[in-house]
């Protein structure tokens, strides 16, 4: 043992050290990797959300400003002065009126220029050589040459816009020189765009155009987004034109409108040839073909991620250092107790039972030693657990039969055996008597009956597992303790009815006696005695029945009484026997049983009468022959006691009549038994009732059994069992059938019964028999 424990003195310590070190370091490394993998995406998502909020707010404000401008332009074109100026056919204005109208329009145009985007505004009359601005009215050529000097490369393209209907149409950007009228001194140059609207609104050949010149510098101030990572902001118009652009000059180009539509809106889009730049755009609600585009510097955006990556590396290295020291300390703390346990186990009495040394450290050896201790303890626990149901049942039997009557003693015994019950609850005892039908007695062994009783106990307990306890007081009786919890009404008759439904089986008759309810468990024996007494009044009807104190059973008892044969009736039986009127003798018994059915006599009453009749028949038979023995008579009386129903009593007397008053001729007997053996060989897989063959031979069951052994040389049950085992061995060796299928094939109800009988006659299980002989 000492050699085993000293096999690897330090291996366990280093295994613990590595385990702790990995436990500390691996989560840190994984956390660092996850941080580095996902932090960039998280920052991009946050940027998308923040950019979406900023861009949406910016787009809404800008679109609102353009809508306000559009509304002002509509209001400007609908004033009465324009309509008056445009009158030609009917009463046109004279020169003074025309002058006043133009000055009024100049004032209104000056009001329009108060809009934050508007640089200037003018009215362009299509049919007249007239242009009205906020400070002058003049001819078209003079206006565009002196008052609004558009550079010559853009002038013709700009004037081409004054055709057809226009409804808030923006021109392409163009350049305007800022200089005093009628001079050549250019002070500055502006890049403008113009919003055009024609009047009348629905005319394809409008009379006048309102031109509002938008200051692109003001638009740039509006478009600028104050975020470090936004380098450029663009308002892209129709025909892929850039209306306004703010930001650095090194920003990548904005994709065309068709390309923008292929990019998901309000998401980051990376440039293929500008790895550090990304694009973010949103459509305008004012003009469907406008897009608000922002260009994002990813290096600035992801700068926090770089800091996080560097901090993560430092964090991992720091944890690796501190984790090493912590792992060494924890490993030493854990290894020292294990070493002490190892030293203590070297002197343990069970050390000599340890298996041979195996690969492993001290902990592995301790585990094997502990496993052996656990196995020993489990064996003892299983042994004790298997005894608990037996001890509980013994305790219940003692309490029901009255051996335990003191409440304190009962409580003490119950605590010792871990039997739980409510000491304050009232209790009712229910007694169940099981009588197997005669045709089932042969095939059912005592083991099978025990299994049936165990299954019944479990099924009854499941009806109400919290308040029901079940035990077996006698081989043919079960007893139920029914506890009534406080505040929860429990009707014993309902439980009895539920038990009755469980007992509706084809194999046996069940009689249920319900005792009275007692206030405590120490008086439970009184309820049990009453339940047992009520079973005296069971009937001979098949199925299941409940015997209660409702008075019906007592009235039936008083009506029928304990009948016995009179001297005259005995004399008539003797005379019929002397006259060999055996059929008439049997019919008189049938009539007596029919009368008992009509009178609803109890089983106790009818069996007393039947035993008296049997005594008279035996006296009559002994007067003619004296070849019967005590065993024969005992079988006759046992057939009466075994009878459970009216039909079984009839069959019992039929068999008794055949046994007492008729004999089978020796010559016929040999032939009849040969037919019986042939039938057994052909129907071994079916239920072969000894009562059936006894009836065919006009014998009692006992007489037939003795005769069968004399003629065949074996008992009836042994002969059938051996023949079935031979057929089972043939199926095992010649087929691949399952054990369950073979059991049914040779006439057994279940697998367990078949295996038990096979082991009895062959000394091994079917599976081992097949394995050994096939190998």
From TrEMBL:
<dbReference type="GO" id="GO:0003700">
    <property type="term" value="F:DNA-binding transcription factor activity"/>
</dbReference>
<feature type="domain" description="HTH araC/xylS-type">
    <location>
        <begin position="674"/>
        <end position="772"/>
    </location>
</feature>
<dbReference type="InterPro" id="IPR018060">
    <property type="entry name" value="HTH_AraC"/>
</dbReference>
<dbReference type="GO" id="GO:0043565">
    <property type="term" value="F:sequence-specific DNA binding"/>
</dbReference>
<keyword id="KW-1133">Transmembrane helix</keyword>
<protein>
    <submittedName>
        <fullName>HTH-type transcriptional activator RhaS</fullName>
    </submittedName>
</protein>
<dbReference type="Pfam" id="PF12833">
    <property type="entry name" value="HTH_18"/>
</dbReference>
<feature type="transmembrane region" description="Helical">
    <location>
        <begin position="12"/>
        <end position="39"/>
    </location>
</feature>
<keyword id="KW-0812">Transmembrane</keyword>
<keyword id="KW-0238">DNA-binding</keyword>
<dbReference type="Pfam" id="PF17853">
    <property type="entry name" value="GGDEF_2"/>
</dbReference>
<dbReference type="InterPro" id="IPR041522">
    <property type="entry name" value="CdaR_GGDEF"/>
</dbReference>
<keyword id="KW-0472">Membrane</keyword>
């Amino acid at each position: 043992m000492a050699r085993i424990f000293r096999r690897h003195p330090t291996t366990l310590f280093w295994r613990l050290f590595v385990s702790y070190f990995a436990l500390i370091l691996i989560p840190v490394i994984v956390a660092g990797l996850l941080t580095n993998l996902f932090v960039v995406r998280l920052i991009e998502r946050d940027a998308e959300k923040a950019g979406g909020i900023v861009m949406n707010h910016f787009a809404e404000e800008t679109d609102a400003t353009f809508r306000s401008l559009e509304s002002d332009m509509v209001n400007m074109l609908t004033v009465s002065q324009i309509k008056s100026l445009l009158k030609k056919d009917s009463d046109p204005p004279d020169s003074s009126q025309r002058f006043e109208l133009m000055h009024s329009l100049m004032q209104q145009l000056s009001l329009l220029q108060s809009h934050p985007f508007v640089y200037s505004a003018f009215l362009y009359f299509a049919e007249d050589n007239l242009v009205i601005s906020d400070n002058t009215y003049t001819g078209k050529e003079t206006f565009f040459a002196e008052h609004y000097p558009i550079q010559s490369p853009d002038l013709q393209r700009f004037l081409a816009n004054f055709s057809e209907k226009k409804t808030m149409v923006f021109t392409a950007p163009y350049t305007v020189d800022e200089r005093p009228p009628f001079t050549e001194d250019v002070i500055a140059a502006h890049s403008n765009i113009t919003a055009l609207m024609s009047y009348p609104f629905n005319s394809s050949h409008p009379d006048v155009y309102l031109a509002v010149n938008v200051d692109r510098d003001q638009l740039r101030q509006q478009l600028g987004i104050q975020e470090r990572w936004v380098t450029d902001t663009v308002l892209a118009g129709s025909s892929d034109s850039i209306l306004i652009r703010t930001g650095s000059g090194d920003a990548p180009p904005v994709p065309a409108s068709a390309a923008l539509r292929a990019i998901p809106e309000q998401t980051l889009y990376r440039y293929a040839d500008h790895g550090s730049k990304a694009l973010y755009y949103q459509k305008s609600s004012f003009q469907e073909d406008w897009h608000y585009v922002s260009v994002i510097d990813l290096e600035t955006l992801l700068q926090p991620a770089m800091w996080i990556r560097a901090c993560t590396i430092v964090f991992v290295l720091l944890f690796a250092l501190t984790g090493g020291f912590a792992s060494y300390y924890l490993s030493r703390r854990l290894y020292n107790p294990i070493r002490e346990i190892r030293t203590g186990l070297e002197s343990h009495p069970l050390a000599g039972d340890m298996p041979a040394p195996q690969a492993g450290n001290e902990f592995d050896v301790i585990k094997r030693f502990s496993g052996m201790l656990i196995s020993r303890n489990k064996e003892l626990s299983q042994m004790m657990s298997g005894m608990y149901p037996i001890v509980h049942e013994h305790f219940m039997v003692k309490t029901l039969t009255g051996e335990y009557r003191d409440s304190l003693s009962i409580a003490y015994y119950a605590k010792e055996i871990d039997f739980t019950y409510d000491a304050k609850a009232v209790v009712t005892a229910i007694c169940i008597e099981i009588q197997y039908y005669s045709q089932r007695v042969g095939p059912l062994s005592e083991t099978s009956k025990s299994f049936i009783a165990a299954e019944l106990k479990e099924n009854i307990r499941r009806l109400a597992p919290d308040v029901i306890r079940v035990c077996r007081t006698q081989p043919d009786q079960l007893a139920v303790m029914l506890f009534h919890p406080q505040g929860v009404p429990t009707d014993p008759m309902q439980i009895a009815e539920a038990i009755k439904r469980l007992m509706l089986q084809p194999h046996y008759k069940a009689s249920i006696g319900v005792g009275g309810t007692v206030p405590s468990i120490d008086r439970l024996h009184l309820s049990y005695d009453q339940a047992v007494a009520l079973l005296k009044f069971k009937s001979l009807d098949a199925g299941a029945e409940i015997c209660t104190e409702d008075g019906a059973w007592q009235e039936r008892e008083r009506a029928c009484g304990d009948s016995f044969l009179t001297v005259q009736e005995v004399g008539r039986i003797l005379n019929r026997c002397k006259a060999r009127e055996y059929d008439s003798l049997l019919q008189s018994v049938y009539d007596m049983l029919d009368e008992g059915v009509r009178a609803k006599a109890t089983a106790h009453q009818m069996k007393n009468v039947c035993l008296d009749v049997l005594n008279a028949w035996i006296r009559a038979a002994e007067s003619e022959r004296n070849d019967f023995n005590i065993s024969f008579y005992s079988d006759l009386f046992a057939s009466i006691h075994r009878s459970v129903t009216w039909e079984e009593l009839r069959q019992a007397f039929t068999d008794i009549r055949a046994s007492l008053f008729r004999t089978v001729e020796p010559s016929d007997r040999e032939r009849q038994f040969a037919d019986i053996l042939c039938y057994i060989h052909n129907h071994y897989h079916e239920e072969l009732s000894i009562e059936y063959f006894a009836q065919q031979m006009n014998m009692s069951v006992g007489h037939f059994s003795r005769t069968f052994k004399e003629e065949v040389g074996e008992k009836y049950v042994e002969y059938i069992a051996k023949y079935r085992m031979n057929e089972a061995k043939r199926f095992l060796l010649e087929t691949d059938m399952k054990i369950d299928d073979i059991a049914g094939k040779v006439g057994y109800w279940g697998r367990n019964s078949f295996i038990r009988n096979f082991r009895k006659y062959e000394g091994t299980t079917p599976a081992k028999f097949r394995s050994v002989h096939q190998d």
